[in-house]
Amino acid sequence: MKKYTYSLPLRWADADAYGHVNNAKFLQYMEEARTRMFQEMLPADEAERRQHAFVVGRSIVDYRAPLSYREAPVDVNVWVVTSRGARLELGYEIRDDNQLYAEATTTMAAYNLDSGRPRRLSETEKEFLARYTDA
Fold this sequence. Notes:
The protein is an alpha+beta fold. The protein is built from three helices and six strands; from the N terminus they run βααβββββα.
């Protein structure tokens, strides 16, 4: 399975008083990696993007080890667990070569922001997502 990998720089403000990245930041790291992955798939036109949006319905994060603030980036790996109809589930790892810091999943819906309703995945989206699916 091919994973999308985003090398994410840590920010000083992400660390808590103990020098560890706050657990809530892990959701932001997943969002940033997912957004960068989806950039290639989403339409360039803002109006079209609103009609081909995705919304998160559920996030589950298993924290495996504390991530201390450092200058070196951390890798956020993203892949497609399942996709069908209007539903999409993504898997994530936040890690470096030697340590896994978190594993996670998000359940998402393909969504039309203008109508306020879920929509089915387009053929273009299915083709893009297939690159990162273990099928």
